Structure formats: structure tokens, C-alpha cells
Amino acid sequence: MAVVAVALPVAVVSTVAVSVSPSYAATIDTGAYYVLTSRHSGKAVDLFEWATHDGAPIVQWARNDLAVQQWQFVPVGNGYYQVRSRHSGKVLQVANAQDGAELTQQVAGSDTRQHFGVVDSDSGFVRLINRHSGKALDVWEWSTADGGRISQYTDTNGWNQQWQLHKIGSDVPPGAIVVAADGSGQHTTVQAAVNAAPSNSGAQVTIAIRPGSYRGVVSIPSNKTNLHLQGLGTGPSEVVIVENHSAGTTRPDGGTYGTVGSATMTVAGSGFTATNLTIANDFDEAANASQPGHQAVALHLNADRSVLRDVRLLGDQDTFLVGGNARSYVRNSYVEGTVDFIFGDGVAVMHSSQIHEKRATGGPITAARTPASRQYGFLFYRCNLTSSAAAGSSSLGRPWGPDAQVLYRESTLGAHIDTGQPWTNMSSNTWQNARFREYRNNGPGSGSGGNRPQLTDAQAADYTPQRYLAGTDGWNPVG
């Protein structure tokens, strides 16, 4: 929405009395999710950095309609609602009854600071009035910037207090190829939809996948360009593409799959994107301890200019293989595994994503094999590294190739990271000879010292997400 700059007289509306239920003409669909867009700035109410913890700040950000900007109105009685995040499951809450009190997310409870009335304003716009304070949600100090704070202020019906509710549905995008396990689409398997997609397309081709579990290998060859796999569920867990082959699993012809062949999904077509879905390999290494070859890839991404947003990659050992042809951008996503679960020769930028070590005994997160001729390999930018493993049991990575390049930048490192020795060797490849670096990390697993090489501020200017992905064509999916 464009920012409207015309100055108009503003009618002053008296503050809603705390003890009186608000009066509404607005109709809320409590089964739907909405993006709340400011009339003043055109930006959407957003959960900063995809946080899931209590107290995380609420800001405005350029509208992208991802789960972090989607909110559900949950009735609490007397015409009030809790406003619940689709991403975190937590609800909006004002800090106190004062003008300027900040808006955060908190676990849902009975506190009236979490209750909001939806009051009609000018045509197509509403105000959100807090039950505790009687004040309206407000873009603080009329900000138009990404990251501008959302607070509350005395209700004046100003444009910075007016919000447009954009309902988010599971409607199929125009022209999409529809996959539905129940037969309600054009295809019942993802692979059939891929096969039906036009070859060598210069425009994006959307494959819309209705909620369900889709078991079977998916292969997107190099001639299937610009494919977009879009899950139509209310979150990425509702559309699951899954198989359970491991490197040691016997194929129908009597051989074994090997690491590359174990992949649930293999993508070679350039311009690939995926949103709001899960790609999993549910081979259970613990249940098959006596079987050799526990590598079991969820996604083998070998496509240039590929983007994953709001995607889950689930596996044990070797979850995410980044092939040598890949320039890949993974944002607001979740990757879990046990050993070397992000690995390969290509370029991958993990941005504002959760990287989860699932093995109780910990393990190395990465195994990069970046060629010496390539400046960039893996970048973890503003990511959150988590695990339930014992403190100090995991490493940031080990070099699959002698010139491996990995950087953890401005990320939160959990206690499972070994602060004394966060990088380890692999075969004859030593971590000291690899290009392993950190920059301005935080959390209990962070630190500095001889075993933790750091970038200088000057060097860091060359190690941004944009620099990793630019290549020779200036590609910039970061924005």
C-alpha cells in the first residue's frame, strides 16, 4: 500500500472506557488469519526477527504476508479478542496503561492487557483498542521505517492508529497447478505436478499443495526452471513432503541409495522457490543402528538462484545438501539434524532461521566442501542455534574439504556449542586451514580466543548476505 501524504482534518474520538465493551461494525472471521497494515506507513505489524520468546517486540515491516505477519483474532468475550501470532502462537500485549507503552508478544492468559476491541474507523480501516488502557495501537512517532515500534496512545483516530485487515486464505493462486492428496486438485502427488509443469519456463510456475502428507521422492530436473512450491496450509507443518531412504537403504535393484540418492527432494532447476511447507527424511538412525550408511538427505538443492522461505527441513544425519551449482537463500526457516546436517559445495545463506541439533549427544552442524576458487560457502546470519543436547557437546562444523568456508554472523549460539573448541577436524582436513570465522555472535555458546577466529569490522563488509549471493549477475533476493 502506498503511503498517503495528503493532510486531512482528523476527527477526535474520545477514549474508549475500559469498563465498557466497544461497539463494532467490523466483522472478524475468527477462523482466518489477517495481515494488519498501517494506513500511515503502508507497513505490516510484524514479529521482529521471527522471535518466539515472551517479551519479543512488535514492529512494523514491509508487507510480505509470511507467517510472522499473520495474526488470528481469538474471542475472549464481551466483544474483545486476543491477537495471536501464526508464527509463535503467542498473543499481543501492551506493557501498561501509559501513552507510548510498547507492544510485545506473551503467552496467552487472562490479562486484560492482551484484550483488544476492533473498532471501525474510516471506510476499510479499523482501530485496535486495548481493554486494559482504553488506548489505540499506534505507529510510534509516525514512523515509516522498517522496524518502527508499535505502541499504544490515546485514541485520536489518526492515520497512524488506523489499520487495514488483509484476510489471508488458502486460496489457490491464479494459474497454479494444484496438488491434493484427496483428489480435489489436478494431481495427487508432487512429482506428477512437477512433470506437468512447462519446461524451461522464463516465468514463475506455481505448484500449490493442499494440506497433507505426500510420501515419495520428488525430482525437479534442470529443465524445470522457475518452479515455486507453495504450501496452502496454515503453517509449514501442514504440507509435508517425506521419504525415508538412507545411504544404506537397499534399492529395488539390489544396490543402495548412497548419500546423494537418499534425498527426499532433489532440485536442479534454476529459479526454484518454496514457501510454507516441510521437506523431511524420516529415516530413523537410532532405530537402524546396525545398518551402515545413516546419511539420509531431506533436500539436495543444486539449483542456482533458489529461495526457501518459511520452510522446515527435517532429518537426522545429512539433512540439507547444498550442491555445487547452488546459490541459495534460506530465510525464516527451520533446519534440524544430528551430524553434518548442513553440508556441501555450494553457496547457502541462512537468514533469521533456527538451526536445531536434535541428537542428545550433540554433533557437528556443518560439513562444507567449498572449492578454493570460491570465496563464499555458508553464511549463518542472525540465526538461532538451539538444542536439548548437553552443554558443550556440539561444534559449529568441520571441513569436508580443506578449503571449507563457513561464517556465523550476528547469531545466537546455544549452550550446546563447545566454547573451548567450536570447530573440529574431518579426516585429514584441519579446521585451522579451513576458512572458518565468526562475527559478533551472542548467547551462551559464543566466545572469542585462539580457537574462535573472528572477522574484523573491515572484513565483515565483504561477508554480507548480498555479497554471498551476488555472483556475476548481481542477484539479490535479500531486499
Structure explained in plain terms:
- The chain is mainly beta and 479 residues long.
- It is built from 4 helices and 35 strands.
- It has helices at 190-196, 258-261, 457-460, 465-470, and strands at 33-38, 44-47, 58-61, 71-77, 80-85, 91-94, 103-106, 116-120, 126-130, 136-139, 150-153, 163-168, 177-179, 205-209, 212-215, 218-220, 227-231, 239-243, 265-267, 273-281, 299-301, 306-314, 320-322, 327-331, 334-337, 342-344, 347-351, 354-357, 364-368, 378-381, 384-387, 395-399, 405-409, 412-413, 435-439.
- It is globular.
Q: What's the N-to-C terminus distance?
A: 17 Å
Indicate the structural class. Answer: mainly beta
Average pLDDT reading: 91
Approximately how much beta-strand content do the residues carry? 25-35%
List low-confidence stretches: 1-25
> Using DSSP, what is the number of strands?
35
Helix fraction? under 10%
The number of helical runs is 4
Question: Helices, strands, pairings?
Answer:
Blueprint: E1 33-38, E2 44-47, E3 58-61, E4 71-77, E5 80-85, E6 91-94, E7 103-106, E8 116-120, E9 126-130, E10 136-139, E11 150-153, E12 163-168, E13 177-179, H1 190-196, E14 205-209, E15 212-215, E16 218-220, E17 227-231, E18 239-243, H2 258-261, E19 265-267, E20 273-281, E21 299-301, E22 306-314, E23 320-322, E24 327-331, E25 334-337, E26 342-344, E27 347-351, E28 354-357, E29 364-368, E30 378-381, E31 384-387, E32 395-399, E33 405-409, E34 412-413, E35 435-439, H3 457-460, H4 465-470
Parallel strand pairs: 13-14, 14-17, 15-18, 16-19, 17-20, 18-20, 19-21, 20-22, 21-23, 22-24, 22-25, 23-26, 24-27, 25-28, 26-29, 27-30, 28-31, 29-32, 30-33, 31-34, 33-35
Antiparallel strand pairs: 1-12, 2-3, 4-5, 6-7, 8-9, 10-11
